[in-house]
Amino acid sequence: MAADGNITKDIIYEAVxxxxxxxxxxxxxxxxxSTAFDKIISATHDHFWDPLDKKYxxxxxxxxxxxEMLLPEDMIISLGTDYVSNHLSDWKTRVRFxxxxxxxxxxxxxxxxxxxxxxxxxxxxxxxxxGAQEYAANQTREEARHVTxxxxxxxxxxxxxxxxxxxxxxxxxxxxxSPEVYKKIIGMxxxxxxxxxxxxATFFNNINDPLGKKLMQLVMxxxxxxxxxxxxxxxxxxxxxxxxxxxIIETWAAHCFQTLLFxxxxxxxxxxxxxxxxxxxDRVIAEMAQMVTDETRRENMKEQSNIFRVLV
Length: 312
Description:
Blueprint: H1 27-30, H2 38-42, H3 82-87, H4 91-126, H5 130-157, H6 166-177, H7 181-206, H8 210-237, H9 243-264, H10 271-276, H11 281-291, H12 294-301
């Protein structure tokens, strides 16, 4: 039984309901494997790495979290306000604030990787094509090592991750729980994975921790292929959409993009951080609102290093 609501323009993305395992046993299906994903499946061996093997990455490498900021101060936007900057005049307190802010960024990445793992696994249950299914299984394995790696990094630097913010949590639950394949691919493979690539590149270029830089380098080798899966879908789907289908897909893409752009990095998502350091969250948010306007967002999006630029 086909999954309701799918917009399928290429048979390689044909899907069934998650509980329809009987369709996977159809004999004709076994002889109709697509070759569209063979190159990215085969490339899995070329970018293999193991977060549990110190030959690839050693999470015991030290970093002075008490005296050094993981990320440059200008990446901690709230420190650019007079209120926060004056309140956190002591250097060690300032460093701790910056690193606690970085914890929330890395925790969001960890939660996003967990979402990508679950979503990839869910695609294995619904995609009929063996090639697409094998690709999804490969990505599931790679996302699992990302979860392991970021969990180990966070444990090494902070001990425990921060809670998943409500905006990201709601979006991940929405994407993963959706029965429509196009929502999964647009939401995760194209937008969330695209955002992740931007974040990894930005952190790789700016992070002061050699271990963090190594982690970003390793993860980026995987993520480029994950984003490619979404691009193949777009190339084979978008040109064949009806006007009504275009509107459906554009509305969903806009919803995901705007959710990420306007809420994921919103200061309102870090109220607990401000309270932890004796700051008035409303005052921080008000001062940051004066700094980050729609105009500054548009200007920042022109920068090649802007995280959200990869989604445009």
